[in-house]
Specification:
Length: 247
């Protein structure tokens, strides 16, 4: 069982040919409403890949996920996507304390910037999504840390995977470092949520027994396949689809 703790959002996503200038009206080419949030999207990915997962946070239902709902309103976001660029208008999320009993027995606990602040101290294997700043982050508590290349400040947990978009990732594992290339050949619609999908896929692959190098390769493939849709979730592959690309 993997437990994901943190942010879930309800996203209204607009695809634009270009960003509007001040006071300008631009007509979107597509509009969808979909679920988002780093920890929530990671949880949906884990479920899609056939691994038992629980989510703790302020959330609606998540497909295939056991949800422990915390009090508060789900964060509403508006996202503008134009080519490789995106702009996000969002709200301050509600704070909460993750129930200790909901973490019991987890093989991994995975958190984002919201989930980190909710955690009790305790004996569990901790994975951290470093895509957003976490000022109080203590890497001494962390077994697996995944910042983006842009946010990598050189801080290292025992295992650190630095993501670099379509170029793949760099793995730092107990003093050994190596590159794991990304996957090409996927028709990219949007990269929204691809990093969140990567984090979920990485943990799902470790839970399935893959070694870290192979798990990172599969996670790169899963993130690439998720880019086939405008939102971050609807194109997440099944395990069978993932194996077909990653073989």
């Amino acid at each position: 069982m993997i437990v994901c703790v943190g942010l879930a959002t309800r996203d209204t996503i607009y695809a634009l040919r270009r960003y509007p200038e001040p006071d300008e009206r631009v007509v979107a080419t597509e509009r969808i409403v979909a679920g988002g949030g780093p920890a929530a999207t990671a949880a949906v990915t884990i479920a899609k890949l056939g691994v038992d997962v629980r989510f703790i946070g302020v959330a609606d239902e998540l497909p295939g996920v056991d949800v422990i709902r915390m009090p508060g309103d789900v964060v509403e976001s508006t996202i503008l996507v134009s080519g490789d660029a995106r702009a996000i208008i969002t709200e301050e999320p509600a704070s909460f304390a993750a129930p200790v009993e909901a973490l019991a027995g987890a093989d991994w606990v995975h958190v984002d910037h919201v989930g980190w602040a909710s955690l009790p101290t305790g004996g569990f294997s901790l994975s951290v999504d470093g895509g957003n700043p976490i000022p109080t982050l203590d890497l001494g508590r962390v077994q697996l840390y995944s910042p983006t290349q842009e946010r990598d400040d050189g801080g290292r947990a025992r295992r650190t995977v630095v993501t670099n978009g379509s170029d793949g990732c760099t793995v730092h594992d107990d003093g050994e470092s190596y590159e794991v290339p990304g996957f090409s050949g996927v028709d990219v619609v949007s990269t929204l949520g691809a990093g969140d999908v990567f984090h979920g896929a990485l943990l799902a692959c470790l839970e399935r027994g893959l070694e870290l190098r192979e798990a990172a390769r599969y996670a790169n493939a899963c993130a690439a396949l998720s880019c086939r849709a405008l939102d971050g979730r609807s194109a997440i592959p099944t395990w069978a689809e993932l194996e077909e690309l990653a073989k």
